[in-house]
Automatic annotation (TrEMBL):
The organism of origin for this protein: Bizionia echini
Descriptive protein name: DUF2383 domain-containing protein
Lineage, highest ranks first: Bacteria, Pseudomonadati, Bacteroidota, Flavobacteriia, Flavobacteriales
Annotated signal peptide: none
InterPro entries reported for this sequence: CHP02284, DUF2383, Ferritin-like, Ferritin-like_SF, UCP029477
Domain DUF2383, residue spans: 8-117
CDD domains the UniProt entry points to: Ferritin_like
Length: 150
């Protein structure tokens, strides 16, 4: 049982770190666009990702494991959000939205991959589906915003 809880916690910690990265990426995006509607959109996404992180931390703690520190940057999301940061030098709203979509798609893929594990407890499965659906909705909204600014 200990090995099972460690495996689940490790998977949740991977998502936790990616949500920290996404939150920071959205805060950077919010600070680097002028359009008030898009700025508010990024703020809502950052808040949402902060909430996702809190929910994941709670689940990890319930399994008696230690959640990752909020200062961690790892893996693919790190590279995606660093790419986003590099686009800020131009303050090009369309480029920032494109990079946000790319980051969200990578995040969505991570959630889908973990959800393939049919041994997840129902509470975690439900939580991850909720997060996945919210990320998909954000992608759809970002695409609309991107069309509006292009």
């Amino acid at each position: 049982m200990k090995k099972f809880t460690e495996e689940i916690s490790n998977k949740l910690n991977e998502l936790l770190v990616k949500n920290y990265d996404a939150e920071k990426g959205y805060i950077n995006a919010m600070n680097n666009v002028e359009n008030p509607e898009i700025k508010m959109f990024f703020k809502r996404r950052a808040t949402e990702r902060s909430q996702f992180a809190k929910e994941l931390r709670t689940e990890i703690l319930q399994y008696g494991e230690i959640p990752e520190d909020s200062g961690s940057f790892k893996g693919t999301m790190h590279r995606n959000w660093m790419s986003l940061k590099s686009t800020f030098t131009t303050n090009d709203t369309e480029a920032i939205l494109e990079e946000a979509i790319r980051g969200e798609k990578a995040s969505l893929d991570e959630y889908k991959e973990i959800l393939k594990d049919r041994t997840l407890p129902p509470s975690i499965d439900s939580l991850l589906i909720k997060h996945k659906n919210a990320i998909q909705s954000a992608i759809n909204t970002e695409k609309v915003h991107e069309e509006l600014v292009s």
